[in-house]
Specification:
The protein is of the alpha/beta class. The protein has one domain: Rossmann fold. It has 7 helices and 4 strands, in the order E-H-E-H-E-H-E-H-H-H-H. A 4-stranded parallel β-sheet has the order 2-1-3-4, sandwiched between helices. It is globular, with a radius of gyration of 16 Å.
Amino acid sequence: MHQPHVVILESRRFPDITEQWYNIAVGALTQQGITFSRVTVPSSADLPLALRMLLDAAHNQDSANLRTPDGYLVLGLDYKGDVAEQTHYAISEKLLDLATDAGLPLSTVMTFEKEGEELGQAATRYTSKIQLAVQSLVNLMMLRHQLYNVPFAAAA
């Protein structure tokens, strides 16, 4: 079996926060023995298009720059002053729809902060959510592997 690989796709609208989130995700993935690639976009609104492009590139396998991932971890933070709450949830839904249609494991930490003072605390407040998202992604990847590969008992 090959070493699992995950693409971390993140919005960089709030780089100080998302950098901390990225480091938490990397630590959790590394503990699981999972390699990763990083793809960044300027804002959460760009995440669905970036995911669509990544899915297309992985499907076509024409890109020598991209290792075919076993799953995707999406990190994004929106703030009431930047984007409407409905837009934030529409972005989250689109990401889920894309992954569901492709049948690929996806886990997200997409959060929406309503108050400015909470934005500063977002870097550390979501540590457990990011760790849980990584574990959820690992579980989905394991399920996909079990469904698409010959069981060890049948191969013996």
